[in-house]
Amino acid sequence: MLELSNVTKAYPNGSVALNQVNMLVERGEFVFVVGASGAGKTTLTKLLLREEKPTSGKIAINGKNIAKLRPHEVPYLRRSMGVVFQDFRLMPTWTVEENVAFAMVVVETAPRLIRRRVAEVLELVGLANKHAQLPSQLSGGEQQRVALARAIVNKPMLLLADEPTGNLDPETSWGIVKLLLDINSTGTTMLMVTHAKQIVDTLRKRVVELESGCLTRDEKCGIYHG
Amino acid sequence: MVKPRTFGYFFESAGKSLVRNSWMTLASISTVAVSLLVLGIFLLVAVNINAVAANVEGQLQVTAHLATLSAAERGRLETEIKAIPGVTEVRFVPQSEAWQRLLEWYGDNQDFLAGWEEENPLRDSFEIRADVSHRVPEIAAAVTVLAGVEEVLWGREIVEQLLAITRMMRLVGIGLMVALALAALFIIANTIRMAIFARRREIGIMRYIGATNWFIRWPFVIEGLVLGLLGGMMAASVLAWGYYLAVRALVQAIPFWPWVQPWPFLQQLALLLLSIGVVIGILGSGLSLRRYLDA
Ligand SMILES: Nc1ncnc2c1ncn2[C@@H]1O[C@H](COP(=O)(O)OP(=O)(O)OP(=O)(O)O)[C@@H](O)[C@H]1O
Ligand SMILES: [Mg+2]
Fold first, then answer.
1. Is B6 within 8 Å of A71 when comparing Cβ atoms?
2. Is B69 found in the same domain as B21?
3. Mean pLDDT over the full length of chain A
4. Which of B5, B204, B210 is the closest to A107 by Cβ?
5. What is the pLDDT of residue A226?
6. Contact, B150 vs B65, CB < 8 A?
7. d(Cα B218, Cα B2) in Å, to the nearest integer?
8. Which of B118, B153, B188 finishes a domain?
9. Are B36 and B231 in contact (CB under 8 A)?
10. For chain B, which residues score pLDDT lower than 70?
11. Domain segments of chain A: what residues?
């Protein structure tokens, strides 16, 4: 469902963030992307979201080369993916419910369906009782759950998580990771960029390592440092 | 394509933004209103000058002073003049009538004319009217060459001055229009730019949850449109009210002047100002959007 062939990304300032990366991810897989700071992990997610275009190479999602998408097609690519970031990126003046619902408003779902689905997703991430609160009234872990709820509310086939536990303590992190596993078990393909050694080593999922832009390791049941 | 019901969200979003940045909202509505008001006043003056010009033009005529002619010669000449294209009316003014007019013209101060009566220095003439005033010069030229015509007079100066005034008004009008439209455009673009800046976080989120560019743009377009429309409405109402009162007062002061009546002229003017407001609003937001939203 996701295939990178000889993907190279050089930023205009000359720094090469990805160098001839090849990678194949099947539907429903759970993949950790690890590597030192500056290895190119975030660049990889930006390429998948088509926030950046590869300098060369091909990125196929469901067989379609997304490097060749025309600008007006890009939003529809993004609708097939969910994203969460280290910094949550919630609207501070909107309630939990409004933040989650926004993802459905943007894709123009009927209000009736929005209400039902938002309640369902908030139940799933364990925030049903906090639906009317503002992000500032929530803990970091809870805020990330809101972001996660927003990412999955439109049932994406691929979920990108760029250091989703980067700002959270280990215990809270596990709560988020358990949710990610739940989401993955319903068939959503998962790509999680992380520095959390303990999580990677415990779960023994597929691990892809980047080093200065090169893919140096790809193991089926890997650990954080090979 | 954006679904119709989503426009509820767009209007709500635009409304919130307008209220949140209320100072900028007021500033831009006022700027648009003032610009359009000045433009409107200019148009009012221009239309009235035009009306005067048309009035004067309607009275333009060619006067052909004649040599001493027999009745038959004069009849032939009249037929020739009537055959000139554009001539609608030819009237014979005998020298006695011309003298009479002169006396009337000077009224109480006609003493110095006394004594001239016997040998009346004035000549017989034809007064010739044209169907449209811009043909006056060519008719005058055609009459000049006819046998029996000694001298042809027509309001050359008046026609040329009118033309000059009209030309100048047009130039000033275009210049003014462009300058004011640019000012209004600039302020709206600036307001929208601030609105975009205030909502950059929201826009960022919209981007990666798959909002189309139009979905992101619409609220800002509506915002610009509302600014332009409200500015246009303010200008139109102030202008309509002001002109209505002005004409009422002026008609009493100078009744014979051809004032352009408020109705339906004001309706057209209001419509024009509103349309300009709307166009400026949409252009203004489009300007900011192009620079800030298209990655
Ligand atoms: N917009 C950009 N312009 C120029 N260079 C960039 C840009 N973004 C990233 N880079 C460079 O590309 C390289 C990879 O950056 P990237 O953000 O992908 O690293 P990362 O693996 O996500 O690091 P971290 O673990 O710290 O988040 C770095 O050397 C970085 O300086
Ligand atoms: Mg990163």
1. no
2. no
3. 94
4. B210
5. 58
6. yes
7. 9
8. B153
9. yes
10. 57-58, 107-109, 156, 159, 163, 292-295
11. 1-80+157-226, 90-155
pLDDT in tens, A124-172: 999 999 999 999 999 999 999 999 999 999 999 999 999 999 999 999 9
Task: Give the DSSP H or E segment for B74.
Answer: helix B71-82
- For position A121, what pLDDT does the model report? 95
B121 Cα distance to chain centroid: 45
Same domain for B190 and B124: no
Domain containing B188: what range? 4-56+163-292
Please identify, among B121, B153, B185, the residue that sits at the C-terminal boundary of a domain.
Answer: B153
> Is the separation of the CB atoms in B66 and B148 below 8 Å?
yes
Q: The domain spanning residue B71 has which CATH number? A: 3.30.70.3040
- Contact between chains at A72 and B213 (C-beta distance less than 8 A): yes
| B48 falls within a domain | yes
Q: Which CATH class name applies to A1-80+157-226?
A: alpha beta
Q: ipTM of this model? A: 0.89
Determine the pLDDT at residue B293.
67
pLDDT band of residue A115 (cuts 50, 70, 90) is very high
Q: Minimal Cα–Cα distance from A202 to chain B, Å?
A: 31
Task: Count structural domains, chain B.
Answer: 2
Ligand closest to the CA atom of residue A37: 1
Q: Rounded to two decimals, what is the model's pTM?
A: 0.76
CA distances from B229 to A220, B217, B275 (A): 62, 18, 8
Q: Is A75 in the pocket of ligand 1 (CB under 6 A)?
A: no
Q: Is B158 inside any structural domain?
A: no
Closest ligand to A39 CA?
A: 1
Report yes or no: B229 and B285 within 8 Å, Cβ to Cβ: no
Do residues A194 and A208 touch, judged by C-beta distance below 8 A? no
Q: Does a structural domain hold residue B22?
A: yes
B24 and B127 assigned to the same domain: no
pLDDT of amino acid B294:
58
